[in-house]
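To: structure subgroup
Subject: Chain for Friday's discussion

All,

I'm putting the inputs and outputs inline so they're searchable in the archive.
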Amino acid sequence: MKKILLSLGTALLMAAGAQAQTSWGLKAGVNLGKYSNPSDIEKDYQVMNPSFYVTGFADLPVASQFSIQPGVSLQGKGNKFKYDGDGLDGTFTTNVMSIEVPVNAVYWIPAGSGNVFLGAGPYIGFNISGKNKIKGNVGDGFGEGESDINFGSGDDEMKVIEAGANFMAGYKLSNGFLINAGYGLGLTALNNTGDKFSNRVLSFGVGFQF
């Protein structure tokens, strides 16, 4: 965690020293999330959990074809199991909303009338709400309905803070329109006890930089 915070601070200092003009952007799209380390049995039923994201960011050039992008993002994450067989027929879905603070280093490659971009960097996420939802028959002891996820340090709670790394790629047209894809790799555990699991999030979206 300390190394991640140090990386964020260093990137922000680099950005603050940029001499070129800052531009701003907004992007949004679809998240496809799941949790790492499912059991051998769970692997057979785990599927991507669709959600959404909305991100505002600043683009601060620090060198030719290179910039730093700090931002703030509302991220829908989570996990889903879809049961069909062995006497089971239903879904168990975990939905979590997180406020995420990424700082990405971005490299721009001129291509056609715009630029291809590749980026990566650390993020810190703050989980703010979540629900578990059960539909159908997912096993003995699990009834249909919804329940809130509690956040904290208890054995039955999810951690408030998580951290990880972002990877992104896309294309920016000359008018500022963005097409992008990304991957969020959670590096810290979400749970306090038991087998550790973390976020894995694939994303696709569009945006505009002005």
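Points worth raising on Friday:
Strands lie at 23-35, 46-47, 49-63, 66-85, 88-111, 114-137, 145-148, 161-172, 177-186, 199-209.
The longest helix spans residues 2-16.

D.
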